[in-house]
Amino acid sequence: MKSENFETIAIRTQTERSLHKEHSSPIYLTSSYKFDDAEEMRALFANEKEGNVYSRYSNPNTSEFIEKMCLLEGAEDGFATATGMAAIFTTFGAFLKNGDHLVSSRSVFGSTHQLLTNVFSNWGVTFDYADLDKPQDWEALIKPNTKMIFVETPSNPGIDIIDLEFLGNLAKKHQILLVVDNCFATPYLQQPIKFGAHISIHSATKYIDGQGRVLGGIILGTKELIADAIGFARHSGPALSPFNAWILSKSLETLAIRMDRHCENALKVAEYLEKHPKIKLVKYPFLPSHPQYTIAKKQMKQGGGIVTIVVEGGIEAARKFMDGLQMFSISANLADTRSIATHPATSTHSKLTEAQRNEVGIEQGSIRLSIGLEHINDILADIEQALA
């Protein structure tokens, strides 16, 4: 039975059952595969026949995970990587070469910023940053050698939003690739490809796993583009392990129900904190006060599980709040079942200069709250007592 419903696809898509008729997909912990004869080996290596050759290339578990993600995000093909940053590195490495130019949203994850400034700049790739809240400035940054637009939306940790339909039209007009880091939204809340993105990237470590267990990433797009990404990845070797792929594929079965609760809890936290006298600013996509609220409502199903706040009193007040939390975990991770508090200026975005952090709205009092699945009364009580 075929279905177009997210939950059913996520649960019922799986590899072909073996002779053992297992109900749940097994883990294929094998590095290599046996060929029936020399001709089959030749045909597989020549890409004349589909099948597994080596687990750095493909594995039944990674294939199942990729198939699910393609169906859920509306992509033709994909490649699974060991981490989210491996997915970003592979995408940049596959499609950018010496002399190329990239336009990126200014508010990107700290490691993505490091790739642009300290790695690909050494390889002759130049870039310009643009602000998500100033779409009128993007087209002016496009040059004859611009090959890619890269954005996070919602951004980390500023929770800024940009109109994906606008970017899709801009990329089409100039015939350049649009790559979207869709990590914060997940395919349940947002499908960038439907708005004109060519490639959608996820750190599967985050909401796809959702329980802080394994690392993983994925690149999704057209068969033609993914073939280029695979060509780069097969030799650079960022492949996802079969065990992690199995975990992530199983995790997708509960993504929808988890995201519903994450979003429900996060919105209540955002509404509560927006009225709190010790909070200077609250950023959450589905708060009417969010500058891009209308855009978020247009392209996202719900607002996600991340709330970014600025505490009155700067870094000392932020530290006092974080140290006062009793249930929340202090961690650099996010998107866990457990609620997490992070101070971006001294952790995930500490390698940026203060000026660079200010440009993307990261103040000394900024705290990123990843709202978990605990009972909302306990989440609010912990925040309330930490702010007291």
H/E series, N to C? HHHEHEHEEHEHEEHHHEHEHEEHEH
Q: How many domains, as an integer?
A: 2
Instruction: Describe the largest sheet.
Output: 7 strands, mixed
Distance between the termini: 55 Å
Mean pLDDT: 96
**Which structural category do the helix and sheet elements fall into?**
alpha/beta
Write down how many β-strands occur, each being a DSSP E stretch of 2 or more residues.
Answer: 12
* DSSP helical segment count: 14
Strand content: 5-15%
Helix content: 25-40%
Radius of gyration: 21 Å
User: Globular, elongated, flat, extended or rod-shaped: what is the shape?
Assistant: globular
Pathway: Amino-acid biosynthesis; L-methionine biosynthesis via de novo pathway; L-homocysteine from O-succinyl-L-homoserine: step 1/1
EC number: 2.5.1.-
Subunit structure: Homotetramer.
Modified residues (N6-(pyridoxal phosphate)lysine): 206
Key phrases:
alpha/beta, Aspartate Aminotransferase, domain 2, Aspartate Aminotransferase, domain 1, seven-stranded mixed sheet, five-stranded mixed sheet, 38% helix, globular
How would you concisely characterize the structure shown here?
The chain is 38% helix and 15% strand. With 388 residues, the protein is of the alpha/beta class.
